[in-house]
Fold these 4 entries.
Entry 1:
Amino acid sequence: MDVMGYGQLLERAWPEIIVVLTAFVVVACDLVAFRRATAGARFGAAVAIGAAGCVGAVWKLMASAPVMNQTSMMVDTPLTRLVQAGLLVLTIVVLLLSVGAQFTEHVGEFVLLVLLGTAGMLFLVAAQDLLAIFISLELLSLSLYILTGFDKASPRSAEASLKYFLFGGMSAAFLLFGFSLLYGFSHSTTLSGIAMAVHEQPHNPILMVAMVMAVVGFGFKIAAAPFHFWAPDVYQGAPVQSAAFIASGSKVASFFIFFQVMVLGFAGAEGSASLTRMTSGWVPILVLVSCASMLLGNLAAIAQMSLRRLMAYSAVAHAGYMLLGYVAHTERSLAALLYYVVTYSLATLGVFGVLAVTEKANGDDSISGLSGLSRRAPFLSFCLAIFLLSLAGIPPLSGFFAKFLLFTSVLAAAPGSMLLLWLVVLAIGMSAVSLFYYLRVLKRVYVADVEAQAAPLRAPVFGQVVIGFLAASVALLGCAPDLLLNALVGVVRASGL
């Protein structure tokens, strides 16, 4: 790449540069200006600076016109810009949920890692080169490993961080080996260059091995079965704010880049998973992973007594639903997938926001500890019901429309396909199963009596405002889905995917 090429690359990376500079400003201010302040004041100042930096990055994204170039290392399209803006908004919410947290005294470092992870996500969704994709994933992953173990007083947090790191290192090895095979096969590191080689030799054995390696590597990132083993321990052991970050923004970025690698990089090697005629390709692989995720995630969630572990297995199940969008691999299914993962992230952030309050009062994340929560905190209980019912797909919440849009886009991809029909039937059946364990939580909240030893629950006003905003967003996007969907459909079409 020549000097002009580097200049163009830096011009496109201004939002990421703003986020990284903000991260260092946060640490400098925390160590110098707020060194003697209380932990609460330090968190408030760090969150304010971090959120302001994210707002500045959003403004930079919206203020300049994108440069349409699909062949460079980093692309700048309306689609990538909208996804990046969504990631920044999710990061702002995670930071706001951190106000008042007491799990660490290293406030500046915590916000620094959140912002560096966000920078990794921003680079990731714009990457069109294997090296850029891998480096961005590692920047994101290293931040998440440390954030998972940030509660030094909790042995469970350290254990979760170590497991996350070990499983993550293994998945990175699979992904890197798959990428090296792709380079050897295509003599190119760009997705467009790989796609040209795939069209010439769609059934090359090296390509098949690389495809499996890529599915293993990205399957870990999205917590799809059978690559999900890290998720329950990480969701349970990480600080609430770290778990919320892992379960929201990182999922959006991972699902998006996974779709791009499979649909753009492996274009021409889709194969077929027809019930009557199956051909090798990445579609049959993802059909198997999707089915395994839906079945294992929902059935394992039934047995959980911890709300965090329930949310982890629920995430596995939702990964199975979202993989159906990959099987369809159309513009409509991509728009549906993005709508699904964004609304899922909002609801999940809301659940972890409520958990941050209840764990502080109860001392654990057990479902039984939520008994009688509706009498102790009516507003939080109402918001929790909105989040869980949305995740279950109950109308008129956004989760219902997300599933409806995704399932109909899958059926429309190949009218008359019995395989797609049965996949959607399985997904609907598993959604009914998920309703059981979500309602089990709400039964504790609204029906069970308050436990005698339950302490009075005092929720911070600011935290309730953030949680209320998330609940209102989930309800609004369900009642008026076009607010987000029209923008997604427009940018997907404009980007030519």
Note: Residues 304-497 form one domain.
Entry 2:
Amino acid sequence: MALRPQLQLLGTDLLERIVGEARDILGHLGTKVQNPRVLKLLADYGARVDLAKSHAWFPGPVLDRALASVPRSFKLFNVMGEETHDFSGLKVHFTPGSAALHILDHKTQQIRKPDTADYVRYAQLLSGLGNIAAQSTAFIPADVTDRISDSYRLFLSLLYGEKPVVTGTFTIEAFQVMRDMQLAVRGSEKALRDKPLTIFSCCPTSPLKWSEITSQNVVDCAAAGIPVEFISMPLSGFMAPVTLVGSLVQHTAETLSGIVISQAARPGTPLLYGGSPAAFDLRYETTPMGAVETQMIDCAANEIGKHFGLPTQAYISLSDAKLLDAQAGLETAMGATLAVLSGINSISGPGMLDFESCQSLEKLVLDNEICGMTLRLAQGIEPREDFPARPIFEELLRDGHLLISPHTRRNVKAEHYFPGPVVDRANLSRWREEGSLTLGERAHREVQRLVGAWRPTRLAGESKKELCALMAKEARRWGMDMLPERAVEA
């Protein structure tokens, strides 16, 4: 049995002190909740509420009640109803970063606004990336009105891909059609509850505030049985204490407040204890997601989530670089490695550049290999017909190699991860013979190959028609008589 390698940053005493301080803050300072309906819900649940000041306080028994009703694990399923994710224990799954405003254009090497054709290529590409288990609504096409940008991204993901989707909405109005799209795939509310298809990101505003939109999103997801991930975003030294411990106290308090909202709305609502905290670089006034301090907060927050017995999430395997360069690989690989060693159940970030604001298809291909390597790391080291050792060494000494040994043939694929062509492992002469391609060129070639190999999904034709009808109706509602052409070619 392999020993699963694991990272730990917090001792028991420090972790419990952080949790205790967060509970104290929620009981005495509380949080702003800018939604009267949610405040009423919290009051009925036992929280102390001031409707006039849009504020709620959470005494210890309320926190304990909410934590007691959260499922300790849950599963996610693709459009065909096949299980793809098991959010339990130290099992890890990768998801692209979400909701970027830009895309890195390989041809021009410029960051630009994306469009529908870019999103379709993304969904097609992701279908062929085996180490990234979920889709995300990764970037926002600029060729549709922003009033439908949330539902439109989910629509394209469900139309062109089979993997489950990590998504969310920046409006209250978009939730209904996004839920209806999932019902078009699943067929009924019960089927959607039994086999969740999406996870919705719900983000408190640091410090200690829930807007009307995000708090309503939490309640709506709970009513529909849709899992949520809480994305608290304390910025160390700016919108949070400069110390990592202080930021963790704030992250814990903000996330616990979201847990209470979800469980007050519907006890048993599945969720991920997640976040996207960041260090704040005072020199540039930026929020570096590739900073080691950011990654440390993510991994430590995961330990706190697991202390509560909850499945976890973090934005961690991404980069602040502006191109597919050494910095992009450095920051992404380091974050992915730490995340896997920490056992973060849902690791968000592959493909992302420029402080969570840009996606790159070429980087996504490279990151798929980083994910594969780290997933192999998580398997640890275990014996595979290695004992007794003498027979295999007798064969080695007799034949001078073990290239065609039965032991090699039986175990090579299980023991070794072989990356695709984006990672160069050829010798110098072969690399020259094959065109002396750069990393970016190899990655772009792989993007072209995988997009070209895409085949329409197995989703039933009637479900696809219903998705298209729902999206067209929603577009007309907000003044668009026709969707971009690529949106309906699946």
Note: The mean pLDDT is 97.
Entry 3:
Amino acid sequence: MKGPHIPGLSKTGTWRNWAASAVSTPNAVAAPRDESEISALLVSASETASSLKVVGGAHSFTPIAATDGMLISLDYFSGIIHVDTLTNRVRFRAGTRLRDIGRLLEPYGLALANMGDIDHQSLAGAINTSTHGTGLAFTGFSGAVTALRIILPSGEVRECSAEQNPGLFQSARVGLGALGVLTEITIQCVPRFKLLAREEPEPLAGMLESFVDRVVLADHLEFYWFPYTETALAKTNTRLPDEARLDPVPWHSRLVNDELMGNTAFAALCQVGAKIPATVAPINKLAARTLAVRTYTDQSERVFVAPRRVRFREMEYSVELAALPLVFAEVRTVLEAYPQKITFPLEVRATAADDTWLGTASGRQSAYIAVHRYAGEPAREFFEAIEKVFIHHGGRPHWGKLHTRGSDYLAGVYPHFNDFLAQRDKADPDGIMLNEHLRYLLGR
């Protein structure tokens, strides 16, 4: 009999994430169809002292879902459970993929308030790793969670909110998959809206000088910097009512700019750069010179998200918003002095502060700097060199992206880190939900 589909699992039984930066061999897999099956799997893992991990879209760059025990998928836990039309709060099954949420919300005239540029993840995965978009009026996904349902390793089901099991709620909003299995998540949604997107190159110096002020005024602002150039590609999204006229990117422009130039040609250039490093700087300068101005209007979920077909590995840290120009300048200095040439652009975003315990924007307006390496190039030493800058400035690593920080450092940048540990230890005293990666992060 054909086994269940588990994202990232090969026919030989080896599991790999999207970037192949994490590999493991689970001894069993399952795709439960209801909560009773999940409870039984958790109880069995507890009785046999083995681990159990949940995989969503397998898009985290870290080994957060890796296990040599039981690996389960929540792909059968997908869809909307309930919509509160008075509050616009929507109860989703936790395995719902982000790519499906726009379609699911459309009949109710609702949308997610914000999104990142990748929608491959499951909702539970996005919550557990503090996934975010950009926009200083908006939190990441976890900050929009108003309630959730979780099954603990004991098999017990808990409903959680700010009023009901508040400690467990705060922990599970960014739970790292370390407390139990999320089965339902309530998200604060907003009325459906369109976005007017403008993409244009501009001088990097001006962008860095103005970013902290501009991100306050713009609904959504982010920029990309091609290493060894003086050019930033700015993307500004302005929110419009849903009645606004659609003016989407024409199919032929999307084919040429997004698919051919943004993916196919870029992949080829990355391959050339990996083989002939001396070509990287000229290629990046050529790319920066050929960036075109583009303006279009479409539904929010189609503007926020961009196709990402070139495999890469990524590290991203959040820092205090006001510190961005200084931190970016130091990152640039390290990057340009690094002996290997870097093909991928850096990405800069910002979000509002939230009150999650382990959210990367917990308690502070935050700017994010993401650095990437093409999957065909070595990443570890480069990331560690850049990471020293982030650490110096009290940066917080994105939980789903590569970094080297452990519990001693994390306790110093998260005021509620020990509160989280207390709730985690209470929920999972035997460490069923832990793996080697999480034990290092949490000191457990």
Note: Residues 251-275 form the longest helix (25 residues).
Entry 4:
Amino acid sequence: MKLTRYFFILLFTVELSACASFGKGIAEAFLEKQQAEDTRVCQVWGQSFTGIGPYLGNSQGKMKVLMVHGVGDHLPGYSTRFLEKLAKALDLTVMSAPYKNIALTSRDDHSKNLGNLRINRLISKDRRRELIFYELTWTPITAGQKEVLAYDNSGEYSFRRAEVNDLMKQFSNKTGPDPILYLGDSREDILVSFAQAFCWMTKSDWEGLPNAVSQTCSFNDKAVSEHLHRDQYAFVSHSLGSRIVIDGMQRIAGLIKERNVEFQSALKNKEIRIYMLSNQLPMLQLGIKLPEVNNQYDAYCQPAGEKHGDRMVSKTPIVAFSDPNDLLSYAIPHGFVEKYLDSRLCIDVTNININVATVFDVFGLGKLANPLEAHVGYDSDDRVVAIIARGVGNNNTSKLVKERCEWIETID
């Protein structure tokens, strides 16, 4: 919260230079009092769901979670804080050491650097429950093209800006280009990177995964279909990562259609939940063509539907987390799924309106929250982690969520 405190103090007290320390002390005390009260909103609209917790003890298979980052520069290990919080929420106190890394590349061009896949294995103390966690880092794909803006972050230009403005400009330079690059030449490589991550996710258990290698994975491997039948899967995505997951799944389904009947059959019977942090699907739909199949949910997703056998998956429940003070986040409005997302994914949506950034009353001038914190604070929020771990509206829902979140159940 130091950045938040500095942001407000700089904005409202620095001009009082003659009594700067006195003003700073008053401001800090005022803001700390508001922080201690913690009246941040958490509202859930949707049907009840269990989270990933109940699937950890599956004796027939494993629970596997893939995290996909969004805009900005990321290094392998970026998900560590979230992973540690998730492990605590699920009471998984044992971790396999060390983690494993796979350097991703293209099956058509092994010289390509398509990022890194880091895998961690978490286990309960009694060894009965297990989670395999995959972290995809696709940053290297766009890093080279973003260097064209590196000069703007150098001392030659940055020192001319006010401190807070410089922080915001650096944030903009690191994050702004990624959606543009994704709509351009980088899109295919990013989707191949996701496909390779998903392939490794489905191919084997912990023991069978390689480590410290640059290696490709094939969906034609018999082990992939075998694991699809018995394992459970979920995605956790942030901002642009959510678009990558949706587009990536559609691409995979298109590639394997009529080529790998066994894989297609196994995939269409899976329910794969996506937890979207700082959801940006409405904004990222701009400039993208409508899917090949839309407005046909009943035909593909209802058991009696005439095209039910042609669905991609059994169901894709989306849990969309959005902080209203996150300038880059949006709720998923009614009708969006039917028009803009592929009907074969059988998507339903739970919208969660949540303040991950503290909202301050700034000395009677109005309420304000740090938009940067509102964009990046999801994976460190205990309520977000608890919802992913134990769901909403079920017997295992965490005490924190029951006390701090309002659930508005929706019905068809």
Note: Residues 392 and 402 are 8 Å apart (CA to CA).
